[in-house]
UniProtKB/TrEMBL annotation, chain A:
The keyword Signal applies. It comes from Ruegeria denitrificans. GO terms for cellular component: outer membrane-bounded periplasmic space. This is ABC-type thiamine transport system, periplasmic component. The keyword Signal applies. Keywords: Signal. It comes from the Bacteria.
TrEMBL record, chain B:
This is histidine kinase. Residues 246-458 form the Histidine kinase domain. The keyword Transferase applies. The chain crosses the membrane at residues 168-186. It is an enzyme of class 2 (transferase).
């Protein structure tokens, strides 16, 4: 029986690999228990592992199959190819909203979901469990005597004053590839026009484009980059070598992404999903929460400049194909000047 | 007299019909409030949807050979501002799908610029759709650009649930207030009837005066016929009493003459059979004339009871006078008659009636006691009144008939050989009760009858 289950699992796995692209995959817990919770996530294994460990400590008889995919691959897996997962965790709030809005999520109500603050829950389908700001990460060593910018204006001025130093050494998301990068960029344009000026400057400096926050931080670490813009602050803070970096939360406005979980409508082990969601939310909210992103970043202190992205159909606007086409063409013309 | 048959209750009927009316009204209120609220909720949702659709429509530009729609952020985010809603939209140029949700149904509007609405099901959920269209000039000529925006109904359902609760509350409150009012109305409507009942039932047994207190106009016919009925009853009673008294009076005189003649004939007659026959005749005549006398007494008592006087009466003197008056008769029958007790009680009432009553009782005692017996009249005084107790050493009352001794014309089983009408104790009882007193009969443990009269002190 167990072998049969395993072979079924292998067939499924084979099916996935053929369709959407998996970045990474790990199994945790009791591997032969028969109770499998399949999580598809955009978060690195290293980042999410503490949550899985604390869950398995409480429910040791469970296996967790953790699959990492980019937000667009995840969208394809769930939306287009209709693969069955028990939980979908993503930082791409717009795509999560699209999934929920289009009926790919099921409603779930429990004590844990009802005690969430309003901004952390949408339609009983999406549950936010972390607040992660988009930060500017700067290499302390490579910056040397240059002043550390506190907001976007200072950053623009700095880049304009030292074009030779920063040429080819500024990094940001390739918003065509990265769902999160697109989300940050679109929210930036909603908050202020500065974003377009900054992008023009980036373009003039032949900025490098990246798919992911961790790659950008690594590039800053190696000295390849001096500045990375719109990096997930949480990834930088959680690193052991974080003292090498200056993590700047821009004081004009700091876009805050909410990492959300949802239970797909076709989840095979819904009860397990529910237990995990409750565990995830209880650990992330409230008095004695132990959230995944340890707060080296004091979000509460800068509440006024926080631009927490609101979960809701507004996020669908930039997914509109006409809108997206227009945005991307404007972005390309700004950043790809050669 | 049999108790009247109760069929229904005016108060209950009034209460029930008021409550039924109130319940119907409460339900009507509930539905009216709810339907008005539903309409308002629907309209406000439609307004938001129309605003959203119009703002999308306004953002459309024709440039560079194609339609550009710069979807405003607020167009979709405004639909989610009150409650979490799933939102769908579709942008079409004539029948060509441009952006949004291809499958979204649209509401058919006739006039450009005026939003049209419909309810539909999309992606397995109920939605409300607003569609609006506008004429665009393109290279290929005039085309219609149509925008549809749809929203799920969770917020509207919440609102409706809340309103439904509120209207339920309003209905229930309305009903409660009505219950209270209905109870008050029913009571105040019935009150004159209750008052009439009390004023009639509180009357004494002989009180046949017409009802004079004012009554509501609906009750005037009832009270008028009641009064007329009582008037007729009173007249009829008076007439029959008059008739009896008149009859008794007229019979008594001829009887006296017949008796005198019979005695004379008896004295003269030599034939023993004739004498026996005549003695029996005289006995029968005595019986008749005594009855006639008591009927007269009774008529007199009835008249005086109707107009009871309130003189001060000393029970001691009453007893002494009665004893003295009857002493000759008792001595004739060799019956020892005496009064004991010196403690006087003063009561209020009609001295003639009381004398008559006491006389009747003593007369009875003497009449029914054999020669050599003793009749005692004892006067005592208690905390709550005076008591006259008449005991004899005769045969006592027949046990089986103690309760019905005071019925009119009832006579004890042992009284057949004695002249009497059976009216005496009836008269006594009426007199005593008219003075607020009570009469008790009992037999003495050692033989002999005992009658006691209790009179309350004024």
């Amino acid at each position: 029986m167990r072998q049969f289950a395993l072979s079924i699992a292998l067939i499924f796995t084979a099916g996935w690999s053929a369709a959407f692209e998996i970045e990474n995959r790990a199994r945790f817990g009791a591997l032969d228990s028969g109770q499998v919770l399949r999580i598809i996530s955009t978060a690195d294994i290293r980042f999410f592992e503490p949550m899985i460990a604390s869950f398995l400590a409480e429910y040791p008889d469970t296996e967790i199959d953790y699959i990492v995919a980019s937000s667009t691959e995840m969208m394809r897996a769930i939306y287009d190819e209709e693969h069955a997962f028990d939980l979908a965790i993503s930082s791409a709030m717009d795509l999560q909203t699209k999934l929920a809005n289009d009926g790919k999520a099921q409603r779930y109500v429990s004590d844990a979901t009802q005690s969430l603050p309003d901004w952390a829950i949408w339609n009983d389908m999406l549950f936010a469990f972390s607040q992660e700001p988009a930060a500017i990460v700067v290499s302390k060593e490579a910056f040397g005597d240059l002043p550390i910018p506190k907001d976007r204006h200072e950053l623009i001025n700095l880049l304009r004053q030292h074009p030779d130093r920063f040429r080819d050494r500024v990094g940001t998301y390739d918003v065509r590839q990265s769902g999160l990068g697109y989300l940050f960029a679109t929210q930036d344009t909603r908050a202020s026009d500065t974003y377009w000026r900054l992008t023009e400057v980036f373009g003039a400096l032949e900025a490098r484009l990246y798919c992911c926050s961790s790659d950008m931080i690594d590039a800053v670490k190696t000295g390849e980059l001096l500045i990375a813009y719109n990096v997930l602050g949480s990834y930088a803070v959680n690193r052991e070598d974080r003292s090498d970096f200056e993590i700047i939360l821009p004081s004009d406005f700091t876009t805050v992404m909410l990492r959300t979980a949802m239970i797909p409508h076709n989840a095979p082990s819904q009860e397990l999903s529910a237990i995990f969601v409750d565990h995830l939310l209880q650990r992330s909210h409230g008095q004695d929460a132990q959230p995944l992103t340890q707060s080296g970043l004091d979000l509460i202190q800068m509440e006024t400049s926080l631009n927490r992205i609101r979960i809701g159909p507004g996020l669908l606007v930039f997914l509109d194909q006409l809108k997206k086409r227009a945005f991307l063409s404007e972005w390309e013309s700004a950043i790809l000047q050669n | 007299m049999s108790a009247p048959v109760a069929h229904g209750s005016i108060r209950r009927r009034l209460l029930l019909s008021l409550l039924a009316g109130a319940a119907v009204l409460a339900i009507v209120v509930y539905f009216v409030v709810q339907s008005v609220a539903r309409q308002v909720a629907q309209e406000s949702q439609d307004n938001v949807l129309a605003a959203s659709a119009l703002s999308i429509l306004d953002s459309a530009r024709y440039s560079g050979q194609e339609i550009n729609v710069d979807l405003p952020y607020s167009a979709l985010s405004m639909l989610d501002s009150i409650s979490d809603e799933r939102v769908f939209y579709a942008i079409r140029l004539e029948n060509e799908f441009l952006s949004g949700y291809d499958e979204l149904p649209e509401a058919d509007g006739t006039v450009a610029g005026v939003p049209a609405f419909r309810s539909a099901t999309f992606l397995e959920e109920e939605v409300r759709v607003a569609s609006v269209r506008r004429r665009m000039s393109t290279d290929i000529g005039q085309s219609y650009l149509q925008v549809s925006v749809a929203q799920t109904l969770s917020g509207q359902k919440q609102t409706l649930a809340r309103i439904s609760q509120t209207s339920m509350g309003i209905g229930a409150g309305f009903f409660l207030v009505s219950v209270l009012l209905a109870a008050i109305i029913a009571r105040s409507t019935i009150r004159p009837l209750d008052r009439l009942t009390v004023s009639v039932s509180r009357r004494g047994p002989k009180d046949l005066r017409p009802v004079a207190a004012p009554v509501p106009s609906e009750m005037v016919p009832l009270v008028a016929s009641l009064n007329s009925f009582m008037r007729r009853l009173k007249r009829s009673l008076t007439r029959s009493e008059d008739f009896i008294a008149e009859a008794a009076h007229r019979v008594r005189t001829p009887l006296a003459i017949v008796r005198t003649k019979a005695e004379i004939v008896q004295r003269k007659a030599d034939n023993p059979e004739t004498r026996t026959a005549l003695r029996e005749m005289i006995h029968a005549i005595d019986d008749s004339s005594r009855t006639a006398g008591q009927l007269l007494d009774h008529a007199m008592v009835t008249f005086r009871l109707d107009h009871l006087s309130q003189d001060e009466i000393s029970l001691l003197r009453l007893v002494q006078e009665a004893v003295e008056r009857l002493r000759p008769i008792s001595e004739m029958k060799e019956i020892e008659l005496h009064a004991i007790g010196t403690e006087d009680s003063i009561i209020q009432g009609d001295p003639i009636l009381l004398q008559n009553a006491l006389h009747n009782l003593l007369d009875n005692a003497i009449k029914y006691s054999p020669a050599g017996a003793r009749v005692t009249v004892a006067l005592t005084r208690h905390n709550d009144g005076g008591e006259i107790r008449i005991t004899d050493t005769g045969h006592g009352f027949p046990e089986a008939e103690l309760d019905r001794l005071t019925d009119r014309f009832a006579r004890g089983a042992n009284a057949e050989s004695i002249v009497g009408s059976g009216l005496g104790l009836t008269i006594v009882k009426e007199v005593v009760e008219a003075h607020g007193g009570k009469m008790y009969f009992e037999n003495m443990p050692g033989g002999g009858a005992c009658v006691s009269l209790h009179f309350p002190l004024p």
